[in-house]
Amino acid sequence: xxxxxxxxxxxxxxxxxxxxxxxxxxxxxxxxGDAPDGGRMxxxxxxxxxxxxxxxxxxxxxxxxxxxxxxxxxxFEKRQxxxxxxxxxxxxxxxxxxxxxxxxxxxxxxxxxxxxxxxxGEIIPSEFGKLSxxxxxxxxxxxxxxxxxxxxxxxxxxxxxxIAAGNTLVLKPSEETPYCGGLLxxxxxxxxxxxDGVLNVVTCSRDNVAEVGEELIExxxxxxxxxxxxxxxxxxxxxxxxxxxKKCCLELGGKDSLIVCDDADMDRATGAANFGSFMxxxxxxxxxxxxxxxxxIFDEFLKQFIERASKLKVGDTTKDNSHIIGPLIxxxxxxRVKGHIDDAVAKGAKIxxxxxxxxxFVEPTLLVGVTPDMKVYQEETFGxxxxxxxxxxxxEAIKIANxxxxxxxxxxxTRDEHRGLNIARQLETGMCHINCSxxxxxPHAPFGGSKAxxxxxxxxxxxxxxxxxxxxxxxxxxxxxxxxxF
Length: 486
Fold this sequence. Notes:
Elements: E1 8-10, E2 13-15, E3 20-24, E4 31-36, H1 40-59, H2 62-78, H3 80-91, H4 95-115, E5 121-124, E6 131-138, E7 141-145, H5 151-164, E8 168-172, H6 179-192, E9 199-201, H7 209-218, E10 222-228, H8 231-243, E11 247-251, E12 256-260, H9 266-278, E13 288-294, H10 298-309, H11 331-346, E14 350-353, E15 357-358, E16 361-362, E17 365-368, H12 375-378, E18 385-391, H13 394-402, E19 406-407, E20 410-413, H14 417-426, E21 433-434, E22 450-451, E23 454-455, H15 460-466, E24 468-475
Parallel strand pairs: 7-8, 7-10, 8-9, 10-11, 12-13, 12-20, 13-18, 17-18, 20-21
Antiparallel strand pairs: 1-2, 3-4, 5-6, 6-24, 11-23, 14-17, 15-16, 19-22
Helix pairs in contact: 1-7, 2-4, 2-6, 3-4, 4-5, 5-6, 9-10
């Protein structure tokens, strides 16, 4: 397939720079499409268009913006099949993963619509008898920089609540998924009849990322930045945004643990480990990157985990829907994952399943004997490779899980809910799921991490807080006088 792009989407119009860059199918290296290659000027034009649209969009009644959000959701629902196919071709995802994304996106916009019917402030006491109010209002133009791994879900999450609250946006998708993470949304917003300039989409090649990103952060008309991606890039964006005193929401990397206690249901535990470690080739910020298993059940767990993971089929996801493990997104990421495997083996770890790397395809890989000096223990792997590490006590498991600069998510498998909650309270993560995988998300729940995993929250009223500013407004009714002499 060679996808034909209409151009970039700015101010409700499709335009072309005359330059393109190849949008690659990671399964076979073919050109899936030729995406528009923008630069600083295109980014600046998009910001100006968003700024021009802000006044009218933010002045709409709350229910009018909610109705627009529902129209967007309905277009997503109608286009589920072609979105799923695009996710397979452009992103290398499994069919089931594509179906999940395509069906999840509408729920994000429905949740954003619902958020407009929630309270946007509160009445607070006043010692002077005033009517004292804390209220929320939209910020203005928001730049959203979205990732390639779950481009439809994560772009939806980044834009839906911000737009519902009355902001206008400039969206820059990853150069790896310029369609699914960007231009698809322009198509859907146009079909849903969203007013011009509310959403603007600028795509660019890796060569132009620096100048486009700089404009999206430093342009004075931009009031906030939402970024989902690596911690290394997130630190740079956070620093630049901070220098300009701009609000920033960063959802970054993770090194998430699944803690399997000795009273765990074995089927549930191995299922959570298998899904959490290998869904979308481990290319999820919440992926299980360490499986911690109590020593008394370690051998039995490992045996059943190997049996389960060995059934996962590896291959081109566009050719066979039974291929659950597809390619990594690019050669650089495949080399990184291979480097983690090689480093672990060189330092004494043992491969008990997988380990094979064929181009961008990496077999589901289980390692034992992993120690803290190995890359696979400390660094985010972002691939289908997971160490299985024994522990003796809950305190030791908590210590291992917290032994990371990251703090995004975690999972705890135990039949004792009190024990699970006690462990969860001590984990230094923004999220924790008891008797489930670390990979969890719901549109109305607070999503985000601590430590090097980011700042700010997506989802529900927390997203509204993230993408609005708080104002204090009072109405005096004659209760407060002024000092003598005035």
